[in-house]
Amino acid sequence: MKEITVLGSTGSIGINTLNVIEQHPDKYKVKALTANTNVDVLLEQSIKHKPEFVVMVDENAALQLEKKLKNNAPDVNVISGAESLVKVVTHDDVDYVMAAIIGAAGLLPTLAAAKSGKRVLLANKEALVMSGKLFMDTVRENAAELLPVDSEHNAIFQCLPADFNRDMDNAGVKKILLTASGGPFRTTPLAQLAAMTPDQACAHPNWTMGRKISVDSATMMNKGLEIIEACWLFHTIPEFIQVVIHPQSVIHSLVEYTDGSVLAQLGNPDMRTPIAYALAWPDRIDAGVARLDLFDIAQLDFIKPDAQRFPCLRLAREAMQHGGTSSATLNAANEVAVNEFLHKRIRFTDIPRVIETVLEKALHDEATSLAVILNADREARELARATIIDLAA
What is the CA radius of gyration of the chain? Predict the structure, then answer.
């Protein structure tokens, strides 16, 4: 029986993780659940799964949850604050940690889980985008297991040799092909992009996701961040990663080998598949996902990304190539810009403009410590806010 902490249990990844877990009560037990402010969903999850701990980062939300749980699940311990996230990932009884807190807020607990030698099921892009070398060194030095949950990286992991040891040359790997849906604006005329609304940007054609990551899909910054992630996960460089727009989202990614073979992982667009694979690896378990019917799909399309339509791809590649804290700067500027767009304070096309301006103005230091990385993150956010004020002037 493996005990699991789910960071970000009220988000789409967290909800899907709990769905897979409840299908296998003989294999997995929920030790802790965490959320920021979503009291109602965490209340429902706590009553159903009866974890030992629940964490609400927001103290007022924690007080509300504690009152509601007294009559429904009095044995659940409610704790609050960001420091409590570290407590529930480093607990001695915890075997696996699902790292599904979106944004930079997930970095500290995810890093703590790796430092504690846990199996980290990584759905938080920022842990590697912001602190790639530091995070991978921590995983290695503490004998932690790192398994990617993003559907694309999980697919790549499945297509690599079972004994892959982060040496692409010896494994005969020539190229990684990272698939992307192209988002909701794949065919929208370029002249109309500036007028696109947050609701339009969040209307993803294939996946049900949170609003921030949905906007990242519309700008394809999500794919830019995934390029950076893949470089760290698979010990490669951006030049060996090709982005392919695949509107059906059936092929989740591919690996090309030196002998001309190309291996692909296919499946319906359902996050429970990569979640189940990461939970059970090296075995496989039923994820509760509908079977893939190739006759029903009938056609698979592949399109080269338009650099003019998706400038965030270029910005991400440049940040990774520049190294140091550049990726942390990229991520922070993107988070601020997306938030401003979701609140209708900037236009959709302003998102890459803000990011590029911040990358040009920011100092790029060597990412030698978490303090340096967090300082770069803070400075990038300040620059992004100043840039947005200038845009409005």
Answer: 20
Query: Strand runs (DSSP E) across 19-155, as ranges?
Result: 28-35, 53-56, 77-80, 96-99, 119-122, 145-148
172-222: pLDDT as tens digits: 899 999 999 999 999 999 999 999 999 999 987 776 677 888 999 999 999
Cβ-based burial of 352 (10 A; exposed 0-12, middle 13-18, buried ≥19): buried
State the first-to-last Cα distance of the chain, in angstroms, to the nearest integer: 58
CB 280 within 8 A of CB 274: no
Q: Are 388 and 358 spatial neighbours (Cβ–Cβ below 8 Å)? A: no
CA distance 338 to 306: 21
Q: Which of 17, 105, 95 is nearest to 57 (CA)?
A: 105
pLDDT score recorded for residue 207: 67
Query: Residue 241: is its pLDDT beyond 70?
Result: yes
Any idea where the domains of the chain sit in the sequence? 2-148, 156-297, 323-392
Residue 209's DSSP bridge partners are none
Both structure tokens of 110: 């995810």
pLDDT band at 321 (very low <50, low <70, confident <90, very high): very high
> Please, are residues 226 and 125 in contact by the beta-carbon 8 Å criterion?
yes
Query: What CATH number should be reported for the domain whose range is 2-148?
Result: 3.40.50.720
Span 322-333, pLDDT tens digits: 999 999 999 999
Chain length of the chain: 393
pTM of the entire structure? 0.92
Peptide bond into 282 cis (omega under 30): yes
DSSP, collapsed to helix, strand or coil, labels residue 377 as helix
Integer Cα distance of 196 and 321 in angstroms:
31
Topology of 323-392 in CATH?
Rna Polymerase Sigma Factor; Chain: A (1.10.1740)
Report the candidate in 88, 37, 87 with the shortest Cα–Cα distance to residue 65: 37
